């Protein structure tokens, strides 16, 4: 037990040191990435896609300069599956996530185009694509013709080169035995080297290569060489380009530029002395799958190019020399044999043979050197402001939207829609204002109607109240009259002693008071009739005047005075005077008379002393 504990104690520091070493290693890697990347920069993903093979590199830096941070490769048959594999491999090597992609594709074919356009005054992009359509269609058709089913099966990794040779030998043996001929794919199925699904996939890919799209996505660059225009172009079917974009978009990657793989593999990593005006010409023989591409460069720039299918034949010096026979006029010309893939790395013996046949120094570039120089060349060609190779830039491919007739029509239609919407908005606003005014007028009319109804109701109620008031007045009028009469009677009773005293004072030596009575011969009277006798008319008149003066202070007046001539109790002739004492304003049968009015209304005294009966004078 003690030994075990001792071993554990002795082993624990070792494990701790190992953990610290791993932590230090990760920190150093992260520090290195921070030093390589400036703040705010994003790495770029460089891709090289050939049939059944995808090479990837993560490039740091800005513009043409940069450093390769990590690399990965995949042998998947489809571009989408290969992209998934290389992104997973890069994620295991670095924590950086690229967002922009530069793609070099084998299917993107380069060519030298003969266009009646000066590079100094190029046509608009749409017209240039229309001109390049006819130039690139034969190139793409020739490229698709070299890919047989056997070539696609080998390129995609379904069969090996040895198995392909076995199938070809079996096909030759069947022809010698005069057996029914079978196609390459059917022979591969009989030999149980592939499955039906694999064969169908390769046949579909072959049909896609041999049947051109109606639209070719193209790029170009031009310059003047010996006072003649030289246009370098590249093109690919729109379906293939769209497939690459969609596969990258699934990983949130944007395709910035797309270049042909054929010319890039023979580009120098840095221009150096090759780009000087007096530099020697260079002829590069690029050994691709199923094709040899010869590129003639002067001062690092492409002058001419040729390609020839390998047609399932081994590399031989004779047809390679025939391919470049007319390019070797300059004795300083250098030859380069570019081996793109390891299966052609054994072509070193061809260098000596080419040297003997052409007399030009020949250099062999192995696949490791080719791919090491390929990534800087791809970055330089993709991000250079003055490109030497044709490229398809997604931003330039979209172009200005105003140059597109459909976009202009759509913009015009949008402008018309906006104007119509503005007019509709103004009309809607005016309509809302009219609706608001109509609603306000309707409200005012409703208020007027309501006020009229209220006024009519009020008038009807007022009329009803007036009629009720009139009926009440008619009902109260007798009561008021009775009240007034009773008030008068009460006043009469109250003032009766004073009236009698006033009558007693008014009676003098020229008048005799004969009687007092009211109109109803009862005590419930508001007026009182006074009857007196006087020997003369003048005395009777004076009695009336004195009575009026004395009773006026009590609020009574004399009314309905009558003076008639008659004999007195003693048989003497005289005048009887009668009048009513009423309250001022009261009217028994007429208005009260003042003494002056009675005097004016009285008839003149008779000349004989005894006058006739004078009718009662009424005011």
Give a structural overview.
A hairpin with a 2-residue loop joins strand 9 and strand 10. With 619 residues, the chain is α+β, with helices and mostly antiparallel strands. Helix 10 packs across helix 11, helix 14 packs across helix 15 and helix 15 runs antiparallel to helix 16. The radius of gyration is 69 Å and the shape is rod-shaped. The chain is 48% helix and 21% strand. Strands 3-2-1-4-8-14 form a six-stranded mixed sheet, sandwiched between helices. The protein has a five-stranded mixed sheet with strand order 11-10-9-12-13. Strands 15-16-18-17 form a four-stranded antiparallel sheet.
List the helices and strands and how they pair.
Blueprint: H1 2-36, E1 44-50, E2 53-59, E3 68-74, H2 79-93, E4 100-105, E5 109-113, H3 125-145, H4 149-155, H5 161-176, H6 184-190, H7 196-210, E6 216-225, E7 228-237, H8 238-249, E8 254-260, H9 261-264, E9 282-288, E10 291-298, E11 301-309, H10 317-323, E12 334-339, H11 349-358, E13 362-365, H12 367-383, E14 392-393, H13 394-398, H14 405-506, E15 512-517, E16 528-534, H15 537-552, E17 556-567, E18 573-583, H16 595-601
Parallel strand pairs: 1-4, 4-8, 9-12, 12-13
Antiparallel strand pairs: 1-2, 2-3, 5-7, 6-7, 8-14, 9-10, 10-11, 15-16, 16-18, 17-18
Helix pairs in contact: 3-7, 10-11, 14-15, 15-16
């Amino acid at each position: 037990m003690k030994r075990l504990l001792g071993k554990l104690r002795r082993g624990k520091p070792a494990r701790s040191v190992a953990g610290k070493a791993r932590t230090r290693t990760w920190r150093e890697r992260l520090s290195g990435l921070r030093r390589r990347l400036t703040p705010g920069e994003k790495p770029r993903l460089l891709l090289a896609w050939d049939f059944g093979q995808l090479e990837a590199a993560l490039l740091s830096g800005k513009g043409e300069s940069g450093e390769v941070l990590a690399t990965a490769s995949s042998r998947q048959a489809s571009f989408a599956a290969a992209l998934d594999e290389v992104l997973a491999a890069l994620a295991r090597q670095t924590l950086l996530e690229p967002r922009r992609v530069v793609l070099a594709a084998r299917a993107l074919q380069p060519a030298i185009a003969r266009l009646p356009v000066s590079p100094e005054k190029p046509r608009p992009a749409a017209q240039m694509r229309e001109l390049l359509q006819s130039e690139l269609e034969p190139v793409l058709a020739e490229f698709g013709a070299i890919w047989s089913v056997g070539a696609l099966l080998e390129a995609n990794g379904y069969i090996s080169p040895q198995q392909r040779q076995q199938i070809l030998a079996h096909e030759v043996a069947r022809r010698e035995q005069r057996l029914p001929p079978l196609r390459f794919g059917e022979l591969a199925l009989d030999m149980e080297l592939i499955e039906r699904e694999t064969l169908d996939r390769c046949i579909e890919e072959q049909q896609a290569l041999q049947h051109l799209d109606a639209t070719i996505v193209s790029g170009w660059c031009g310059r003047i060489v010996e006072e003649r225009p030289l246009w370098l172009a590249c093109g690919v079917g729109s379906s293939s380009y769209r497939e690459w974009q969609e596969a990258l978009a699934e990983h949130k990657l944007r395709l910035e530029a797309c270049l042909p793989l054929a010319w890039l593999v023979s580009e120098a990593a840095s221009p150096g002395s090759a780009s000087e005006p007096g530099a020697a010409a260079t002829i590069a023989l690029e050994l691709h799958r199923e094709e040899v591409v010869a590129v003639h460069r002067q001062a690092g720039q492409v002058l001419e190019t040729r390609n020839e299918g390998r047609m399932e034949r081994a590399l031989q010096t004779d047809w390679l020399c025939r391919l470049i026979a007319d390019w070797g006029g300059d004795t300083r010309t250098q030859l380069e044999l570019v081996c793109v893939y390891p299966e052609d790395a054994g072509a070193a013996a061809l260098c000596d043979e080419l040297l003997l046949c052409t007399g030009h120094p020949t250099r062999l570039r192995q696949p490791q050197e080719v791919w090491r120089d390929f990534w800087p060349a791809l970055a330089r060609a993709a991000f250079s402001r003055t490109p030497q190779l044709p490229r398809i830039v997604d931003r330039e491919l979209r172009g200005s939207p105003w140059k597109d007739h459909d976009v202009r029509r759509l913009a015009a239609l949008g402008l018309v829609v906006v104007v119509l919407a503005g007019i509709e908005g103004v009309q809607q606003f005016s309509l809302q204002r009219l609706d608001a005014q109509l609603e306000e007028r309707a409200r005012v009319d409703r208020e007027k109607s309501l006020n009229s109804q209220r006024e009519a109701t009020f008038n009807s109620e007022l009329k009803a109240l007036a009629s009720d008031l009139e009926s009440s007045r008619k009902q109260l009028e007798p009561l008021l009259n009775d009240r007034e009469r009773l008030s008068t009677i009460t006043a009469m009773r109250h003032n009766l002693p004073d009236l009698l005293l006033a009558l007693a004072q008014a009676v003098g030596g020229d008048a005799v008071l004969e009687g007092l009575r009211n109109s109803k011969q009862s005590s419930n009277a508001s007026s009182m009739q006074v009857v007196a006798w006087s020997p003369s008319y003048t005395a009777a008149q004076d009695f009336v005047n004195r009575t009026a003066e004395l009773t006026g202070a009590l609020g009574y007046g004399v009314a309905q005075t009558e003076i008639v001539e008659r004999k007195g109790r003693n048989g003497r002739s005289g005048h009887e005077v009668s009048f009513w004492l009423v309250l001022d304003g009261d009217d028994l049968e007429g208005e009260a008379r003042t003494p002056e009015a009675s005097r004016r209304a009285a008839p003149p005294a008779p000349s004989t002393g005894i006058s006739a009966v004078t009718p009662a004078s009424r005011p």
